């Protein structure tokens, strides 16, 4: 018997019980649809987060003090003060790090800002004049501070949109003096409304020269970050290596395992986020796959009923020349046609549903969320559906093929 | 339909049975259905096996048709012992050399006459291009050309049985096994069916083994084997048998 006719026979067998066949595949439809939805939305969420990270800029390298956190208690607990002025100078030397274009030390912390009777707790950023270019963040009013003002420990501040609003309301803020840790700072610039940018909200920050911040606000001699921008994207990797070499020499470190600093780049951040969201998506898909298992048991159940019901048909087929293999294949194909059909419907339903969710997220919640058709998920779904049919169809099909023809023909 | 004339070698009989036994075991209770049966059937013979219900006549047919396995004795088909055939060879023999007609027709429901008759071709080595022609011929031979695209459920009992015969014929078998083919039919339909079966024997020279408990049906045969309690009580030509016993006459 050719495969074509076994296929036709299987289709005919299923068509004679339309309602039963369609109810049977429901479990598979729901299972595959759930997997597709989870995978599509997982990919959408990942893309959303990755696009946020991309905002930071592909050329940016962050040198962070301390050991790379290996667990929750590790974070910034070791060598948090390892990046000092000397390191900044060494990294700034062209002979050490030739492709570093802009180098900016960063210190930050939360402090209260006061103007007359108003106070507001904001994040103080101690940086250099490069911050404007690095973060693409220019004051809407006023100016940024210059190199001279940094060197002279000037008490000047550029405030975020929300800080201005909280302290001054609609009044003029430029050239006013606000108090931070008892010192008066002159407002020289006001940032435009920016909203959430990457993981920061510049609306709630006050930006001051880093030396001033170290000396008068935080009372520290080290940096919380050194931001380095490479001259081109292609030189990022080389620049990272140069910085590592420079800092290891400076800190007398021979074993890279003992580094008292670590380096973050956009590529690395994206890899981390990708692996986290991938694991999460796989986990959710695995949960959804449980319904496939239930669906598979349903298929097996119905196939067993069908085999019993069609005992006489099986007996007849054997009497007129069907081999055990013919019968096995016929019932196995019936089960697989059921599950693959269920899989296809599930893929269509799951895709439609995730498209709908993407649409709602992007239009109603105004998220930068793009619908992604999960090709891998669809392929995976089809393979799994066929596999479920194969596994759960095998037992009933064997039962059918092993029937003794005369017992089958006598069956009432 | 063309007439198939089978040339058979007469060196070994088509069917050779010696001391054949069959016991059914049900809930540890043994029921002997056949208790040592011996006979031979030559190619082209029309043999009726008769006897009351429980006499073992259907069991013989099941064993001869490889539908069941004996528990003792010997059965040779075409000179080769039944136990020496593989599962695939048996499937091939059932498909190409044997045709079965059952009391309960066993047609596929919700399937047309045409598709029912074609069914054995699916499992055969006949090329697909010949299937329709073969099926037409077989349906014509049983006089059902006008019913070809009807579903089996729309037919009368006699017509159903003729479809079953057409299905048995479609692969041009040497031997037809008919198990109470008229058992579910009224006498008029039964007669039409028997006329078709007689034609297969007399005109087409096929071997026919007919199981029946009706004497008038058995009288179509050339030879009658009478069974009682799992044993053969008589075996002879129709006219000889008529002289010895009429106990099953209706």
User: How much beta of chain B, percentage-wise?
Assistant: 25-35%
Rg result of chain B: 18 Å
Q: Total number of β-strand segments of chain B?
A: 10
What's the order of the H and E elements of chain A? HHHEHEEHEHEHEEEEEHEHEHHHHH
Strand count, sense and barrel status of the largest sheet of chain B are: 6 strands, mixed
Largest sheet of chain A: 6 strands, mixed, barrel
Q: Biggest sheet of chain A: strands side by side, in what order?
A: 2-3-10-5-7-6
How many runs of DSSP E, i.e. beta strands of chain A? 12
State the strand order across the main sheet of chain B: 6-7-8-3-9-10
Strand content of chain A: 15-25%
Structural class of chain B: alpha/beta
Number of DSSP helices of chain B?
Answer: 8
User: Are there runs of chain A of 5+ residues with pLDDT below 50, and where?
Assistant: none
> What is the distance, rounded to the nearest whole angstrom, between the alpha carbons of the first and last residues of chain A?
28 Å
Helix content percent band of chain A: 40-55%
Folded structure, characterized:
The complex is a heterodimer of chains A (412) and B (250). Chain A folds into two domains: 3-53 and 271-410, no CATH class; 60-264, no CATH class. Chain A is 55% helix and 17% strand. Chain A has helices spanning 3-15, 18-24, 26-54, 85-92, 131-135, 147-151, 161-168, 210-218, 236-250, 266-309, 311-319, 324-363, 375-401, 405-410, and strands at 60-65, 100-115, 118-127, 141-142, 156-159, 177-180, 183-190, 196-197, 200-201, 205-209, 225-230, 261-265. In chain A, the strands form two sheets. Chain A has a six-stranded mixed barrel with strand order 2-3-10-5-7-6. Chain A is elongated and about 105 Å long. Chain A starts with a helix and ends with a helix. The mean pLDDT of chain A is 87. Chain B is an alpha/beta fold and 250 residues long. Chain B has a domain at 44-64 and 98-244: Rossmann fold. Helices cover 32% and strands 26% of the residues of chain B. Chain B has helices spanning 57-64, 87-96, 113-122, 131-141, 157-169, 187-202, 215-218, 238-244, and strands at 15-26, 29-41, 46-50, 72-77, 80-81, 98-101, 175-179, 207-212, 223-228, 231-237. In chain B, the strands form two sheets. A six-stranded mixed sheet of chain B has the order 6-7-8-3-9-10, with helices on both faces. In chain B, α3 packs across α4 and α4 (131-141) crosses α5. Chain B is globular. The two termini of chain B are 34 Å apart. The relative contact order of chain B is 0.19. The A-B interface holds A 1-2, 5, 9, 12, 16, 312-313, 315-324, 326, 404-406, 409 and B 62, 65, 67-68, 87-88, 91-92, 94-96, 100, 102, 106, 108-111, 119-120, 122-124, 128, 167-168, 171.
């Amino acid at each position: 018997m050719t495969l074509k006719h076994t296929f036709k026979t299987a289709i005919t067998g299923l068509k004679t019980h339309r309602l039963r066949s369609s109810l049977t595949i429901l479990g598979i439809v729901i299972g595959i649809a759930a997997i597709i939805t989870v995978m599509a939305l997982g990919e959408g969420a990942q893309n959303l987060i990755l696009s946020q990270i991309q905002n930071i800029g592909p050329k940016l390298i962050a040198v962070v003090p301390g050991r790379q956190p290996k667990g929750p208690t590790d974070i910034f607990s070791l060598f948090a003060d390892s990046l000092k002025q000397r390191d900044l100078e060494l990294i700034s030397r062209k002979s050490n790090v030739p492709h570093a274009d802009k180098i900016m030390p960063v210190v930050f912390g939360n402090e209260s800002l006061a103007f007359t009777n108003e106070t507001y707790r904001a994040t103080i950023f101690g940086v250099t004049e490069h911050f404007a270019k690095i973060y693409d963040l220019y004051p809407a009013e006023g100016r940024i501070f210059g190199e001279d003002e940094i060197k002279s420990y000037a008490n000047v501040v550029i405030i975020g949109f929300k800080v201005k609003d909280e302290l001054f309301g609609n009044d003029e803020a430029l050239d006013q003096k606000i108090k931070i840790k008892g010192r008066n700072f002159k407002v020289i610039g006001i940032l435009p409304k920016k909203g959430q940018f990457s993981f920061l909200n510049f609306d709630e920050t006050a930006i001051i020269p880093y030396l001033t911040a170290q000396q008068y606000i935080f009372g520290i001699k080290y940096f919380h970050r050194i931001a380095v921008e490479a001259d081109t994207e292609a030189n990022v990797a080389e620049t990272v290596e140069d910085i590592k070499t420079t800092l290891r020499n400076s800190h007398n470190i021979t074993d890279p395992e003992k580094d008292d600093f670590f380096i973050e780049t956009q590529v690395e951040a994206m890899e981390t986020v990708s692996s986290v969201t991938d694991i999460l998506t796989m986990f959710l898909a695995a949960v959804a796959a449980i319904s496939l298992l239930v669906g598979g048991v349903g298929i097996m159940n119905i196939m067993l009923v069908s085999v019993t019901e069609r005992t006489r048909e099986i007996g007849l087929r054997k009497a007129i020349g069907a081999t055990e293999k013919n019968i096995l294949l016929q019932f196995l194909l019936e089960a697989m046609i059921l599950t693959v059909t269920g899989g296809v419907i599930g893929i269509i339903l799951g895709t439609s549903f995730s498209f709908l969710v993407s649409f709602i997220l992007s239009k109603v919640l105004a998220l930068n969320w793009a619908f992604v058709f999960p090709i891998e998920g669809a392929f995976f779904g089809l393979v799994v559906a066929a596999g479920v049919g194969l596994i759960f169809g095998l037992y009933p099909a064997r039962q059918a093929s092993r029937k003794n023809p005369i017992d089958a023909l006598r069956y009432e | 339909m063309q007439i198939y004339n089978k040339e058979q070698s007469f060196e070994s009989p088509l069917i050779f049975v010696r001391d054949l036994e069959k016991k059914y075991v049900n809930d540890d209770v043994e029921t002997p259905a056949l208790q040592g049966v011996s006979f031979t059937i030559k190619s082209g013979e029309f043999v009726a096996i008769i006897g009351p219900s429980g006499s073992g006549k259907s069991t013989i047919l099941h064993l001869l048709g490889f539908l069941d396995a004996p528990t003792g004795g010997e059965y040779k088909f075409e000179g080769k012992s039944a136990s020496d055939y593989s599962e695939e060879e048996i499937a091939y023999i059932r498909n190409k050399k044997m045709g079965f007609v059952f009391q309960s027709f066993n047609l596929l429901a919700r399937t047309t006459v045409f598709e029912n008759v074609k069914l054995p071709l699916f499992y055969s080595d006949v090329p697909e291009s010949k299937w329709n022609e073969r099926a037409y011929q077989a349906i014509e031979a049983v006089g059902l050309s006008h019913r070809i695209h009807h579903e089996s459920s729309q037919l009368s009992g006699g017509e159903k049985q003729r479809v079953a015969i057409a299905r048995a014929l479609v692969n041009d078998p040497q031997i037809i096994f008919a198990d109470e083919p008229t058992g579910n039919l009224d006498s008029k339909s039964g007669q039409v069916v028997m006329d078709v079966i007689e034609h297969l024997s007399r005109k087409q020279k096929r071997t026919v083994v007919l199981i029946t408990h009706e004497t008038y049906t058995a009288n179509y045969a050339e030879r009658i084997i009478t069974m009682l309690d799992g044993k053969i009580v008589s075996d002879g030509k129709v006219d000889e048998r008529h002289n010895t016993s009429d106990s099953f006459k209706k």
